[in-house]
User: Fold these one by one.
Assistant:
Number 1:
Amino acid sequence: MEFFDIAVIGAGAAGMMCAAVAGQRGQRVVLIDHAGRLAEKIRISGGGRCNFTNLQAGPGNYLSANPHFCRSALARYTPRDFLALLKTHRVSWHEKHRGQLFCDHSSESIIDVLKAECDAGSIAWRRPVAVETVRFADGQGFALDTSAGPITARALVVATGGLSIPKIGATDFAYRIAKQFGHKLVETRPALVPMTFSSEEWEPFAALSGISLEVEVATGTKKAEGAFVEDLLFTHRGLSGPGVLQISSYWQSKEAIRINLMPTREPVAELLQAKASARRQVGSLLADWLPARFAHVWLDAQNIRHDTRIAELPDKVLRRLGESLAAWTLVPSGTEGYRKAEVTRGGVDTRELSSATMMSERVGGLFFVGEALDVTGWLGGYNFQWAWASGVAAGLAAAEFVRQARNA
Ligand code: FDA
């Protein structure tokens, strides 16, 4: 039997951050992970450069059944704090787009920073090690049966993430532990995920695979509405690209998505004005505004020959064409699922956790952090910022919990 102050299960973004913070406060911390490779999600993130935070990260960038929960942790550990950490490790970075920060070289540098911080906290690593059972005995803490033998710890942090990309080690472990200790779950589903359509509906557009264009894409209404101006990418089976990934997190099954294919123009007015240049063909005009291949397919779908001169098209037809471009409405049949989802929406219900510490209100010393919780960030570095912020909050609180328990 091995004894520790704190056991952290899951050595991903949130788990490593949490372990490092607690270890550096003098607690004996063990960090357990079942995967062969360390922090694989960090490694593959941001196309290998890890979009590790977003300068604009705030509570409004997260979806949750308890939208204020993330506020406290995000305010106490900000993107600037993470940048200060990177500076001490001399990791260089750049801003790509709308506050999204990426490593200049490789996402490996983020893993190296977290590993070095864990080493500075004298963390005991146990990996690849599987946790088979967890038991709680009041006054003694948590007893873990692992593939490397039994471990006991005064506090337990569950940092095993969500369900996306099972191939690299995602499991429902956090949800099972939450249920075991009487916590509720918010229904989970794939998020930041490409959307798919029935083969009949997609047949006319399948040939556009690879084409990308900036659009405004929206779904839902009122408080549940998500709307983003971002790129959309056609795929063989449906739609992807940042705009579609963003609204996939808001989408409810059977709901429509609405796409304005020309968000910076007034297609109806501009098509009608174009009648003045009478010799212009409609296909060539649309190709000034949109990718040519897309313009042709779109006109086909509207039963308009692309070589028709604009002057020959009645106003009614041009108006309908313009309206179709401004409001393409379609109902996805589904998504590409957890296999392709960047994150999991839903998870451990935060209404029974402290937003300041991430600790369970049911079981003293039990913490949940990161993506396992029902806190889902937008695309653009927000999910890692949540992992860092919730990891730090729990690391500090778990260290304090153990200190007080020792002195009691
Ligand atoms: P994370 O998934 O990082 O770690 C969980 C750990 O627990 C893993 O090491 C796993 O092996 C371990 N584990 C699971 N079950 C276990 C069990 N039963 N026993 C022991 N260990 C177990 N976000 C962002 O902000 N910017 C980005 O650029 C990207 N890019 C990106 C690309 C791709 C392809 C994906 C899939 C995801 C992203 N993300 C992202 C999302 C981001 O990776 C994610 O939100 C965080 O990694 C979540 O951090 P956690 O520490 O909570 O879980």
Number 2:
Amino acid sequence: MQVELKSPCKVNLILNILGKRPDGFHELETVMHPVKIFDVLTFERISSGIDLTCDNAALPTDSRNLVHRAATAFVEEAKITDGVKIHLAKRIPMEAGLGGGSGNAATALLGFNQIFGSPLTPQVLQRLAAKLGSDVPFFLQSSPAIAIGRGEQVRSLPTFPALDGYYFVLIHPGFGVSTPWAYKNLARFPSALNGERGRAERLVQSLNLSIDAAGSDFYNSLEAPVLEKFPLLAIFQEFLLENGAAMALMSGSGSTTFALINGKEKAERLQEKVREKFGSSVWVGSVEV
Ligand code: C5P
């Protein structure tokens, strides 16, 4: 039996960092929203081993790949003696702040559970996901969510009425940003490092009303170090806002900038303008929220 699953990505509508923890991670509160741009994973049982292939040669297929690590964690936990063959078709930009790799890991856990007859409970999957990475548990579910702790404690939310009819326009500059680098350099920006708790909940309340009500609660603490190093990303935001976007923000640790704009036509026009202005070295996409 072969199982095929789509692996989505996300943007952070707010990423509010509250401080550095003794374990080296950062305490945060975030609102994550799924984005309907997908990688595709296929799963098959084989007699032994973990056989991972990927259509993008830039991505390692050994234990450096989160999907490989998810496979190891799953077969150990479920005491499976058979093996698994996985193919990953990569479409989501990497080191992009879109959680592509985290989504792949969560989707892999769900795929293994399907092909092996659901040996693991949702609670165990949640524990394995959190060990694989802070953003992985979010992708075990498919709704917008608020997450706390280091990002691994996830509470699903209903869809936001304010975003009805809106489109995400995403710009990837053609280079990635390393997440550990972004967090490390946040230390130079004490006010961004020590955010005020409660803003994520406030954003959720606003998004039950309107985008305008959200105002400055669309916020990302990691913009402080990342926009300083890559001013092009600030220029993207300015351009998006000048051309009709209701908001514009960096996602995660970057390098993707995203905007919200009302209606398909406006989104496509904005996408076209970005292409004209910034040329073919940037990747731009638009997708319904
Ligand atoms: O959890 P994950 O492996 O995705 O984290 C990657 C890196 O991002 C960590 O090694 C750490 O440097 C940083 N990070 C952090 N605080 C978080 C999440 C990630 O410092 N809450």
